[in-house]
Amino acid sequence: MKTVKTFARQFSFSLMMAMTLGSAxxxxxxxxxxxxxxxxxxYRVKFKYDYNMKYADAFSxxxxxxxxxxxxxxxxxxxxxxxxxxxxxxxxxxxxxxxxPGDYHLITWAGLxxxxxxxxxLVTAGESSLDELQxxxxxxxxxxxxxxxxxxxxxxxxWHGEVTKQSFSRAATSQVVTVPLVKNTNTIRVILxxxxxxxxxxxxxxxxxxxxxxxxxxxxxxxxxxxLTYYPYYRTQGGTDMGTRADGEEEDSNIxxxxxxxxVGRLVVENNPRLTITNKETGEPVLxxxxxKYLLLTEAxxxxxxxxxxxxxxxxxxxxxxxxxxxxxxxxxxxxxxWVVRFNDMDM
Length: 348
Prior knowledge:
- Its main location: membrane.
- One of its GO terms (cellular component) is cell outer membrane.
- This is FimB/Mfa2 family fimbrial subunit.
- This protein folds into two domains: about 40-115 and about 155-185, Immunoglobulin-like (Sandwich), CATH 2.60.40.2100; about 185-240 and about 255-345, Immunoglobulin-like (Sandwich).
- The model is unreliable at about 1-25 and about 30-35 (pLDDT under 50).
- The chain is mainly beta.
- It is built from five helices and 22 strands.
C-alpha cells in the first residue's frame, strides 16, 4: 500500500509539471516557449478630425497627407511614418504601425508635403528628441530696412494631433488607437460695404493682419516668433445697382462691396493679432482692431465652449464692416459669421 501511495504522489506531481509547461508554451508573456508561439500583434492608428463646428469627422475629405511620430518615455523618437493620397480617403482608413509593445507619446502633423506652407525638421529614430519636432510657417522678408516678415499667399491647411501616453499591449491580436486632430489654419474674409452710392474700390485699400504665430511646438503651443504680417491672397469687388420693394417696384439700393481674403496660422487667446485696413490714397486707417477679441464677440451668444475651443473649432470667419461716404468705418455694428454685433452699449 505504501508503494501505491508513493506512485500516486509521483504521478500527480508529474501531471502538474506537464500542465505548467504546457501553459508556458501558449503564453506570450512567458519566457519559456516564446519562439514556438505566434505572439505578433497588429497595431493601427486612426486619425479623426471632428474638432470643428459641425462636430463631424472630416479627415477623409480634407486631409491629404499625415505623418505619425512615436516617442518613448525618454522623449526619444523611435518611429515615424507618412501616408498620403487616395488611401487616406478610403472608408475605414487606418495606418499600420510597426511598434513594439509599450507606452508611447504620439505626435501627428498632417498636411505637410513638398508644396505645404509649413515644415518640420528632419528627425531620426533613436537620435531626435521630442523638442525638435517644431513646425514652422514659411515666410518672406520685405526689402524694407526692418526686413519685415510677411505671408502674402494662401496657406495650405495644417493639422496637429497628440496623445501623450498611449499603451500598445499584447492583450489582443490587433489594436486600433485614435489620434484626434486640431486644424491650425484659418481663413479671414473681410468685407467692406458702402450703402450710400459710393463705390468701394478694393485696390484703394490695404488689408493686413499681424501676429507672431508662425512657430508651433510639438504640443501645438505657440513658441516665441517674429511678428508676421499677413496680406490677402485674394481680392475682389462687386455690388448691386437695383433692388425690389415689397410692392414689386424697383428701388435704388446701390450696394458696393470690397472683399479681401487672408489666411492666418493658429489663433490663440493669449496672443493679440491685429486686423488693420488702410486707405492707400490718404494713408489713414479705415480701422484697426484686435482680431481675436472681435471674433469672440459671437462666441458667448452662439456656442457653449471655451474661447480657445471656439477658435480651434472655427476655421472660417466672415467680417463685414460698413463704411460712410468718406470711407471710414461706421463704428456702430459689425457682422461676424451671420451674427450682427452692435456696439451701442459696448466698450471696445
